[in-house]
Each structure stands twice: as structure tokens, then as C-alpha cells.
Amino acid sequence: MGIDLKRETEATEINQITEYINKVLNVIEKEEITEEDANWITKETVDGFREHVNPGFLSYRKTVTKDGQFAAVEWSDGGSCFKDVSGKEYIDCLGGFGIYNVGHRHPKVVKAVTDQLKRQALHSQDLLDPLRAMLAKILADITPGDLKYAFFTNSGTESVEAALKLAKMYSERTTFISTTKAFHGKSLGSLSGTAKGMFRKPFMPLIPGFRHVPFGDIDMMRKTFETCAMVGEDVAAVLLEPIQGEGGIIIPPEGYHKQVRELCDEFGALLIFDEVQTGMGRTGKMFAADLFEVVPDIICLAKAFGGGVMPAGAIVAREDVFKSWFENPFMHTTTFGGNPLACAAAIATISVLLEEKLPERSAEVGEYFLSELRKAAEGHEDKVLEIRGQGLMIGIEFHKDEIGYEVSKGMFDNGILVAGTLINSKTIRIEPALTIRYDEVDKVVNSFKEVLGKVKA
Ligand SMILES: *Cc1c(COP(=O)(O)O)cnc(C)c1O
Questions:
Q1: 316 vs 143: CA distance, rounded Å
Q2: Residues 131, 277 share a domain
Q3: Inter-residue contact 282 to 308 (CB < 8 Å)
Q4: Is there a single domain that holds both residue 147 and residue 273?
Q5: Which structural domain range is residue 241 located in?
Q6: Is residue 5, in this structure, part of any structural domain at all?
Q7: Quick one: 351 and 446 in the same domain?
Q8: Whose CA is nearest to atom 5 of ligand 1?
Q9: pLDDT in tens, 369-398
Q10: pLDDT score, position 2
Q11: Where does the record place a coiled coil (predicted)?
């Protein structure tokens, strides 16, 4: 009797779950949603975040938005914009932390992924998969210098992990130098390179051997190399973002990367460029390495690599370095890395970047954007400390965090998404699609000017 009763409740519960799932699938399927759908989606989203995702996100949203806008629920995207469920459009200047270099859902990327999906989604894991080989060849062609062999990942942090392991295996050394304000990801290995104490402290000890030196300070870098050599802890590699993204869009002094390259050569260390954010045209060149005219030994990619359609990442290394993994290609692996859908997306993304000359466009539009923002900030020196950038990687640094929050709030109200950087919340970033139109840039600048006029210093 008891058992039957339990079975019955289980059956009703399963019915309820299936009913809910069907409702969700039905909403996914819809091309247009009604106001009733929108209300249901918003309620389910807010409740779901509160009860099952993490209520902290709701509190965070309340600090960066006005009135009831914390509950804005995103629903669709295209070009430089995304829309919420109620149909309000936002110009996306956060760009998903820099993933939408070719824009949101670029038709060519979507087509390559859908075409591939119709044939095969994931790979067998055993036979030779064609797109991985083709993408690796393309990468060898477009990356700087003699970078030649690629290993594929699903995210930025995984690319950094792969680079660290490769550097250890190649050098048989375990010391790494990274920099203050660096961001390399949050898995335990990459977190060791990341600089912000708040993100690191609860997880210590991280992997041993990491030294942090101030970004841009070549003398400290040299001293650290020398000290490490003296105490028998020779440096395996320097891990560096060519331009720091999450640290607040920080551009190093002239000649810094070339000097770091020289130090690495002098001490027999590898140079790893973490171009997860600066890569794929963001800074006005295909890679920031091209901008600084420095060839690293390993380059890390992700974010925009999958064209804003698929999660995808990669490292590309010199043959001499990558050779460490020839004998046993299973030394470092990932099940999903380099899957056919991700490779199709990355190949189409590179095609769009080249065909539409997006790196060049990024340089051109970025210069205009930067100078217009600087003009808009004239007379507000009490609020704005500095506006800096390279290509379409632009940071606006305020004197206080609060001013940054108020400006983001006001601009969000005007239909523009901007946000602070992870390590440095005094700086908001502007990292739109490299396809952003000039009239959209003007709209962002006008909104910035208007909002800046209203907030208090
Ligand atoms: C975002 C970022 C990462 C981490 O990428 P995830 O895909 O979030 O793991 C690593 N390095 C840099 C420079 C980044 O900007």
C-alpha cells in the first residue's frame, strides 16, 4: 500500500516535470513570444536564479541597474545588439567580455555551425577528425612567427592550463612569472596566474611556483628572473596578457613586450601570451602580438575564437615546444575540445575577420570611439580619471567605483550595456562587436555624455 502510494506520487511528480520541460521547449521553439510568455519567462528566470542558480546574481543586478530593471531577461541577439524578453534593445558594449568580435550570431558563423550540425555534432574521439586538422593549419598561417601546432580547448582557462602544462613539460621547470592585475581564468592552475587576492585567497595553496611582478615594470621582471636563477628556481615561462583586460584595459609602456621577450631568451624561459581577450582582431590587429611585434612561444585563445556562437579555445605553440607532446598525444586531453561544431565556428569566424577586414575596422572605429569619448568627458575631470584603449578595447577609469556604477546604470537605462572589469571595478570597459556601426558609436557616446553630466563626482 505504502509502496503504491509512493509510486503514485512519483508518477505525478514526473508528470509535472515533463509538463514543465515541454513548456520550456515550446518557448525555445517559438520565433515570436507573446507578452504572456515574456512575463512567464521573467518570473521563472528570477525565481530560478533565487532558488536554484544563485541569489547573489539578483543582488548584483540590483546594484548595477535602476528601478525594476535588475530583472531584465535577455532573449535574442544579432549584429551589435541583444534584446530582452520585452523587446527592449541594448547596444552591447560589454560584448560578453569580448566574445562578440564578429558580432552577435554572424550569419556565416551560424551557417557553418548549422551545416556541420546537420552532418555530425561531436567527434568519435578516435578516428581523425577533419576540421581540427584544417583549423590547426589555418591557425598556423594567421598566428605570428613560427607558431605551428594547435591544441583545442573549450574556454580561456583551459587554454591557459594547457599552456602551463606544456611549458612545464618542455622546460622541466616549475616557476612561472605573471603580473599584478592579471586575469588568466579561475580554474586552480590559471587562478595561480590571476592576480586578484579576493578570487585567490579561499583556494590557497594554489599551484606552487608562481611569482607576480607589477605589469609593465621591466626592472622588477629582470630582478625576479635573476633571483629565481640564483635560488635554483629557474623560470619555465612568463605568462602575460599583451594588454590587460580584466585588470582595467591596461596598455604596457612602449617596448615592454620586446624587453620581456629578450629576458625570456636570456634566461631560457618561454613567453606565453594570453590573448584570450586581445586576440581575434580586438586591438586593431589579428593578435596583439602583431601589434607589439613580438612572437610568443605559446599563444592562448578563446572568447571570440568561437565567433560568439560556440564555446571554443586553443593554444598554438612553436614546434620545438609542442614537440613535448608528440610522443604521447594523450599527455593532455579534453573530450570536447576541438569538436566539429567549435571548429566550424572558429573557421567561419576567421573567414569573417579576414573578409570583412575586422582587425583594421577595429583600429579605425576604435580611434574614433576613443577620441569621441574623450571629448564627451571634457569638463568632467573630477569624475573621469582616464580614458584609454587600443582598437575596440577601451576602458574608462573613474575616480571612484560608485561613479562607474552610476554611469553603467544610466547607460543601461538608455539601452547600452557597459560593465566594470573583474579585477578593477573603477574601470568600465567598452568592447563592442568589431562590426559596430558609426551611428551606434555616436549613440553610446551621446548617452555617456548625458549620463556623465547627471552623476555626482
Ligand atoms: C576571460 C579570460 C580568461 C578566462 O577565460 P574563460 O573562458 O572565462 O575561462 C583568461 N584569460 C584572459 C585574458 C581573459 O580575458
A1: 8
A2: yes
A3: no
A4: yes
A5: 107-355
A6: no
A7: no
A8: 156
A9: 999 999 999 999 999 999 999 999 999 999
A10: 56
A11: none
